[in-house]
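pls design
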């Protein structure tokens, strides 16, 4: 069995904007009973950019995803990533925490923003 997915904010934003590929991707994974996770960092990013009238759809979307809190292991790994990649790839704290979550939880990171994740120790998939 493949490892479960950590869904990055960009995919969820595409879904909220009714981007066909994002809708199709998430629908397929739900139908396949895939285990779908979300970093609490992505929740922050989604709530920070929520549009008026999207509150209910965001809450419904979040109910389909299992949240992953930041713990000490994730924080430490994120710090390592920042130390290694912040200058060469302008890695920010949010993306470092999301990458560290994928690494420590053994999840495949699903994102369109592959260039923001130069880590070689996590599996990154671009779904569309």
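designed seq:
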């Amino acid at each position: 069995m493949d490892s479960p997915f950590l869904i990055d904010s960009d995919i969820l934003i595409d879904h909220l904007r009714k981007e066909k590929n994002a809708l199709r991707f998430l629908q397929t994974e739900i139908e396949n009973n895939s285990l779908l996770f979300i970093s609490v960092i992505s929740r922050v990013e989604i709530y920070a950019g929520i549009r008026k009238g999207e509150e209910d759809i965001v809450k419904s979307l979040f109910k389909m995803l299992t949240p992953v809190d930041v713990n000490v292991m994730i924080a430490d790994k994120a710090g390592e990533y920042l130390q290694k990649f912040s200058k060469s790839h302008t890695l920010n704290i949010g993306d470092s925490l999301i990458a560290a979550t994928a690494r420590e939880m053994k999840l495949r990171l699903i994102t369109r923003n592959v260039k923001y994740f130069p880590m070689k120790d996590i599996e990154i998939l671009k779904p569309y």
